[in-house]
Fold this protein.
Amino acid sequence: MAQNLLYILTEGSHDAAFVYRILKTNGFTTNNELIKNYPQPLNDFLSRDILNVSIPEVKIQEARSRFLPAYVMNRGNNLVLIYSIGGESKADIRISLIKALNALNEPDPDAIQAIPDTSISVLYFFDADNLGTEARMNQVIEECKLAFPKVAFEEKYDPAEFHLFEDIQVGAYIFRKPDADEGMLEDVLLPLMRDGNDDIFQAAEGFLAVNHTCTLFSASLKLDASGQILKVNGEKYSHKKSLVGTVGQLRKSGKSNTVCISDAEYITDAKINANGTCLDIMSRINKVLI
């Protein structure tokens, strides 16, 4: 029986949770099987990756995100593994993972081998930030050049399509503002959450504004030219992420932003099915499903 493995590589846990939520709306369910019960070659791939890691060389905080996916979801013969890997500084982890996946198709009696009729795809998720879609796609291609050294790469690749490198389809989705080629996940996420809940968000904005005036924080703020907070006590501050967390506590008390994104009622099936970005993401994923 044919099977399809899609590896989704995100920059962080919030991105992973958002993709999980979209897949859940589109009929995917969480796979709760024991690793030994996963289909080949995935069970051996995950098991060996855990057993072969040099524990002294791994930071405790990185162990889960580096060697195991944050979510595994399935629908029919499609299995989707969603990783929370990190941004530009974690390129080596993504490259190593893709190399390992590509090795599944190399004839080697001593290595894990993909069974016949197994399709493998990789989908990157990056924020455009202030660089834009083309720059992020170029970053993906530069990583692929290191992962697929035998491939003769073209000068330019369409960021809206998957591209076949050896036996693996590789694509990318870049989070950005609806009206500009810049931005991040929260530029998609916050309007989706805020729709129909403006009173809650206005109250949260008022609470977060206390940062500017309260005795505890006001002296430790670093502001940009427009008065926006860049750092608090030397730590990077994101107003957008703080807003997600603040409203999230009303529904998921004590939980992280990740849980608020994946499970809180601010993001509904109806919203996802009507949102252009969510539809675009699912359309991209559908290109490699069977």
Q: What stands out?
A: The beta strands are 3-10, 29-30, 71-75, 78-84, 118-127, 163-165, 168-175, 221-223, 229-232, 235-236. Residues 198-265 form one domain. DSSP finds eleven helices and ten strands in the chain.
